[in-house]
């Protein structure tokens, strides 16, 4: 009798906090409550339970790995397509087209290969994007810049100085070595047409008839490509920047030798 009274007293003295502690979290019923009282099922049921436990364990492991990957990705700087394109151009300059490979570029950028495949379907897609960027920066942008120079003599002078003195010829030489690649061949052909066309317009404005202007423009661009190749093979061809500038002056004089000089006429 005393025990029953004590039990009743304990039930009545338990407050709301005790009830909350005893209840399952979030007020949801405990789905496992009472299962411990069920009789064990047949062996087949126990095998199903074990398979379910293994599947649940694998799911937890995958979730944990995904969380780890997200933490690693969060620590790494994010890269956009332009970063990959710039890295590809740098790789071409250093080692040619063969140097454009996904794993070395990922190491250069400090990211995983997954970043690459987030932006590009495959290596050829990156190569096409890289060639398009090269054309935009070093062909079409220069065309717009130099076509805006009204004086054709000044335009030719600045074109030659940019091509021979300001820019390193490594990338175009590397691309010429990979001309058997169809995408590279097409990019080089487009670049040649733009640059020869720009020179042709300049020589026509300087007084040459159309056919001769075209021939001289092609000869000028050919001289540029030949010297670019020679400079990569013989790095000390010009022993100083002054010697290189002297060569450019001689080339400019040869290109203009039979054309009237408006300054001299004045």
UniProtKB/TrEMBL annotation:
SUPFAM superfamilies per the UniProt record, alphabetical: Homeodomain-like
Annotated InterPro entries: Homeodomain-like_sf, HTH_TetR
Gene3D superfamilies referenced in this protein's UniProt entry, alphabetically: Tetracycline Repressor, domain 2
Top-level taxon of origin: Bacteria
Domain (HTH tetR-type) ranges: 78-138
Residues of the DNA-binding region: 101-120
Annotated spans, Disordered: 1-79
Pfam families: TetR_N
GO molecular function: DNA binding
Biased composition regions of type Basic and acidic residues, renumbered to the chain: 7-20, 45-79
Keywords: DNA-binding, Transcription, Transcription regulation
Classification via PANTHER family: HTH-TYPE TRANSCRIPTIONAL REGULATOR YJDC (PTHR47506:SF1), TRANSCRIPTIONAL REGULATORY PROTEIN (PTHR47506)
Name of the protein in its database record: TetR family transcriptional regulator
Organism this protein belongs to: Paraconexibacter algicola
């Amino acid at each position: 009798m005393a025990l029953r009274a004590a039990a009743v007293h304990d039930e009545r003295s338990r407050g709301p906090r005790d009830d909350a502690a005893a209840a399952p979290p979030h007020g949801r019923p405990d789905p496992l409550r009472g299962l411990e009282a069920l009789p064990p099922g047949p062996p087949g049921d126990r095998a199903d339970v074990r398979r379910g436990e293994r599947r649940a364990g694998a799911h937890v492991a995958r979730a944990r790995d995904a969380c780890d990957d997200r933490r690693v990705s969060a620590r790494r700087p994010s890269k956009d397509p332009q970063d990959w394109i710039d890295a590809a151009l740098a790789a071409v300059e250093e080692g040619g087209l063969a140097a454009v490979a996904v794993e070395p570029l990922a190491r250069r950028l400090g990211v995983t290969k997954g970043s690459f495949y987030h932006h590009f379907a495959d290596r050829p897609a990156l190569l096409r994007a890289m060639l398009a960027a090269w054309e935009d920066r070093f062909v079409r942008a220069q065309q717009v810049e130099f076509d805006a120079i009204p004086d054709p003599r000044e335009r030719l002078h600045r074109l030659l100085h940019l091509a021979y003195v300001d820019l390193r010829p490594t990338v175009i030489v590397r691309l010429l070595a990979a001309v058997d690649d169809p995408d590279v061949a097409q990019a080089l052909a487009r670049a040649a047409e733009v640059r020869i066309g720009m020179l042709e317009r300049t020589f026509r404005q300087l007084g040459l008839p159309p056919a001769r202007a075209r021939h001289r423009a092609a000869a000028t661009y050919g001289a540029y490509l030949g010297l670019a190749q020679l400079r990569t093979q013989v790095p000390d061809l010009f022993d100083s920047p002054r010697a290189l500038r002297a060569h450019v002056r001689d080339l400019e004089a040869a290109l203009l030798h039979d054309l009237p000089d408006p300054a001299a006429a004045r």
